[in-house]
Structure formats: C-alpha cells, structure tokens
Design a protein that fits this description.
The chain is α/β, with parallel strands linked by helices. The chain has one domain: Phosphohistidine domain (Glucose Oxidase, domain 1, 3-Layer(bba) Sandwich). The strands form two sheets. A seven-stranded mixed beta sheet has the order 1-7-6-5-2-8-9. Strands 3-4 form a two-stranded antiparallel ribbon. Strand 3 and strand 4 form a beta hairpin. Helix 1 packs parallel to helix 2. The two termini are 16 Å apart. The mean pLDDT is 93.
C-alpha cells in the first residue's frame, strides 16, 4: 500500500482507528495526548505513539499549533493517516520538525486503502510512503 506523504519521515506503531473526525484544537489535549471531546466516540483514548487512522479531521486554523505542541511534548501520534488531506496538520508537523526536531508523519491514502488499514493492529510507514503491517 502506498500513501502520499504530506509531512515526511518514517514511523511505526500501534493503530488507533477513529470512528469520527477529530479536531486537534479543542477535542485533543496536547499535554496528555488524550481525546477530550465529550461527543467523540473514542473520548478518553490516548493518541500518543500511535498510527492514527481516520477519514478526515475536523478543522481549525489552530490545529498546527496543537499538533506542534504535542510533538514538542512527546504526546503526539507517530503518524496520522487520512483519506482527506489536512494541510494544517502537515504544517504543524513540519514546524515541530524544524523547531523541536520531533516528527509526526502525515499521510494521505484512498478510502479503499484506509478501510484496509483500519483492520491492522500495527503499521509501519516508510519515508517513500510505503505502508506495511508490522506485527
């Protein structure tokens, strides 16, 4: 499987597949990595160190700051895989890489590939966008 990389790097981790879009501003706590949106089906789940798989995000122009802060604090996912690209997340990840040396791969796949990825327990993403199950 192949992804289009929006913010580069390589990553590997357990899959956390979200049933609904997530806003990184207000629905996610950058200090802890916990989903705090009281209406989100996965409220209370921790995204730290995961390969976060979801169709799309719920947008805010403040998302780059929230994802960059979580990368700085070490509470971010190692990767975010989306079917709908989110330039805000990619910008936040790139800023964090430049300022803090941290990384969160942001990648885009088709809906068909996303459905396959949701079933995996663990994924690896290579710098060239190749995605493989990893355990």
């Amino acid at each position: 499987m192949k992804a289009r990389i929006l913010s580069g790097g390589a990553a590997e981790g357990p899959v956390l597949s979200l049933d609904e879009p997530l806003s990184f501003w207000g629905a996610f706590e950058p200090r802890t990595g916990i989903i705090i949106d009281s209406h989100h089906p996965q409220r209370g789940a921790c995204v730290t160190g995961t390969v976060l798989v979801m169709r799309e995000t719920r947008g805010s122009g403040s998302a780059p700051g929230a994802i960059a802060e979580s990368i700085r604090l070490g509470t971010a996912p190692v990767a975010i895989i989306l079917a709908e690209p989110d330039i805000n997340l990619a910008v936040g990840a790139e800023v964090a890489a430049t300022l803090y040396g941290g990384q969160c791969v942001v990648a885009e796949v088709t809906l068909e590939v996303l459905a396959l990825l949701r079933r995996e327990k663990r994924l690896a993403i290579a710098a060239d966008g190749a995605i493989t199950p990893s355990g």
